[in-house]
Amino acid sequence: MAKSLSPQSLSEADRRELALWAADCAERVLPLFEREAPGDGRTRDAIARARAFGRGERDAAGEIRRRFMAGRAAASASTPAGVAAARSAAQAAGVAHMGAHALGAAAYAVEAVGPSPADAASEIDAQLALLSAAATSALRRLPPLGEDASGPLGPGLLDRGVRGDSIRVIQARLRV
């Protein structure tokens, strides 16, 4: 019997498109992490690997094994912004595994810019402006946050607070 995939996985082609966008989102806030941990290259490496996966230069299996490295870099940060920036890079690296991690990269980037609703709205506007038509199409195929527990869009770290609010706004704006 074939194993059924989560609707949050998406096809490899979709994940490659989303990896490029997720890397763009994470790179926008990378300086927030690098100011705190200038010698820690794990976040920058995760973004580079997400881009390489997006361009077809890396395979999903190899990236799945490496996806946790940037997340561990969050321990090198001393502020919530630095931690969120590292986690954004980790989520970007996770897109090779599951397409829904792209929304995690975007949400953590919004969290990194700070608690101001105006800053969050501005960041989301900038992120949406970076979307290609193919990435937009892929994001539209993801289930709404909270409706599918088989991945990062289920109950957990992405469905509450600034992250959850950000994903809900992004998904609502993409469905218009």
Describe the structure.
The chain has one domain (12-175). The model has no long low-confidence stretch (mean pLDDT 93). Helix 5 runs antiparallel to helix 6. The protein is mainly α and 176 residues long. It has nine helices and no strands. The chain has helices at residues 12-34, 42-54, 60-66, 69-73, 80-94, 101-113, 117-129, 133-140, 161-175. The longest helix has 23 residues, at 12-34.
- Residue windows where pLDDT falls under 50 for at least 5 positions: none
**Largest beta sheet, briefly?**
none
Shape: globular
- Oligomeric status: single chain
The figure for the number of domains is 1
The number of strands is 0
Query: What is the CA-atom radius of gyration, in angstroms?
Result: 15 Å
Number of discrete helical segments: 9
Q: Could you spell the SSE succession in H and E letters?
A: HHHHHHHHH
Structure classification: mainly alpha
Q: What proportion of the residues is helical, as a percent range?
A: 55-70%
**Share of residues in strands:** under 5%
- Overall mean pLDDT: 93
How widely separated are the two ends? Answer: 38 Å
